[in-house]
Amino acid sequence: MVVAVFIAVTGVSTSLEFPRIGNLLGLSEKASDEIREEERVSEVLNQDASYLSLFQTINNPDVRIQDFVKPGEELRYQAKWRGLPAGSIRCAAKRVAMLKNRPVFVFEMSVESNDFLSAFYPIKTNINSYVDADTGRSYLVRRRVSERNRDYEDRLEFKYDFRRDNGIPDPVSKYSRIGEDGKEEGNQPFPIPGNMQDILSTVYYIRGLDLAEVGDSCSFLLGGRKKPVIAKVTVVGEEEVKVQGIGTFDCLIVEPFSDGTNLSGNFIATRGGEKIWLEKNTLIPVQVSAELPKPLGSVMATLVQAENCELLEHCKEE
Questions:
Q1: Could you report the per-residue pLDDT of 269-279, keeping only the tens digit for each?
Q2: 295 upstream amide cis, omega within 30 of 0
Q3: Is 17 or 174 the better-scoring residue by pLDDT?
Q4: Can you say how many angstroms the Cα of residue 60 is from the centroid of all Cα atoms in its chain?
Q5: Could you say which DSSP state residue 105 is in?
Q6: Which end of the chain is more exposed for a tag (fewer CB within 10 A), N or C?
Q7: Are strands 123-132 and 74-81 parallel, antiparallel or unpaired?
Q8: 76: closest CA among 129, 112, 106?
Q9: 30-39, 150-159, 306-315: which has the minimum mean pLDDT?
Q10: Is the pLDDT reported for residue 25 higher than 60?
Q11: Collapsing DSSP states into helix, strand and coil, what is residue 21?
């Protein structure tokens, strides 16, 4: 429930190549031990005309993530359900790692219910995303989910350099569920038209989109268990948001919409009422809200702490 509040409204549910960025940022260029390229290659699904006509009309524009995110950035939010504290959300740009000799940002989101919510709906979830620092495209997203009576681990990988046996480029995505024995049970690879986003990378990718005033709208492709999801965000208003203990921010109010299914296979078109309050200059989420199925009501997540980012430079005094 809590993870749906933040990811749903920022990404619709609920990348990395620039010369020697590690040196530029004063970071080492050690190879990441968290990413392993799969050696086996699976047969690619045939692309039919309807699929091509739908998804080839949308291209995820390149976003230079390193222009909008600093390694070490950390954002913390408190989630409330019906006005009562329900848990905490942490989003962090942990570091820059290397993938195929390309620097990538390693993003992490952790969601944990507090004692109140855990008494009847415990949640402890971690999501890692590996995103190209120069193009903003996602390479891999991994989840470890513990929610009520569900415990599982899964991953979604985007293979942009995949080629058919005849050498023709044919990028694919590959979803896998990790069993208790550590073995992967994967879907057949699915063709993708180009750059993709994942459920966590959108939190950072959105900062580079052309969203500045009411009426602005952007669409992009979000990876799913099978075919991509069409995600759309639209600016519907502006509002000052006062955050207790921090200050006041001028925000754009953004409404997300999606058409498709998420990694778990669930339909994720929004119910209406989902909103994101993005600080106007940085497009960093200050507040997010989502409507839950009746009679549960709504959930709100509000920023309570921000470190190593430009957000606070645009904060008005309390």
A1: 444 568 899 99
A2: yes
A3: 174
A4: 14
A5: E
A6: C
A7: unpaired
A8: 112
A9: 30-39
A10: no
A11: helix
Q: To which residue do tokens 């109010």 refer? A: 253
User: What 3-state class would DSSP assign to 173?
Assistant: strand
**CA separation for the pair 37, 310 (Å, rounded):** 34
Q: What is the C-alpha separation between 191 and 169, in angstroms, rounded?
A: 11
* Whole-number Å distance between alpha carbons of 307 and 205: 19
Amino acid, single-letter form, for residue 135: T
* DSSP class of 86: E
| Residue that the structure tokens 């690879």 belong to | 189
- Give the Cα separation of 220 and 201 in Å (integer): 12
pLDDT in tens, 280-302: 999 999 999 887 666 767 788 99
Q: Where are the alpha helices (DSSP H) in 2-132?
A: 2-11, 21-24, 49-55, 115-118
23: helix, strand or coil: helix
Q: Which residue has the tokens 């429930």?
A: 1
CB contact set of 230 (below 8 Å; sequence gap of 6+): 54, 55, 58, 219, 221, 222, 258, 259, 260
> Does a cis peptide bond (omega within 30 degrees of 0) precede residue 103?
no
* Cβ contact 290:5 at 8 Å: yes
Amino acid at 69: V
* pTM (whole model) above 0.85: no
The pair of structure tokens assigned to 98 is 């290397």
> Comparing 103-107, 164-168, 210-214, which segment has the lowest mean pLDDT?
164-168
pLDDT tens-digit profile of 104-125? 999 999 989 889 888 888 888 9
192's tokens: 């993708």
Where is pLDDT greater, at 29 or 234? 234
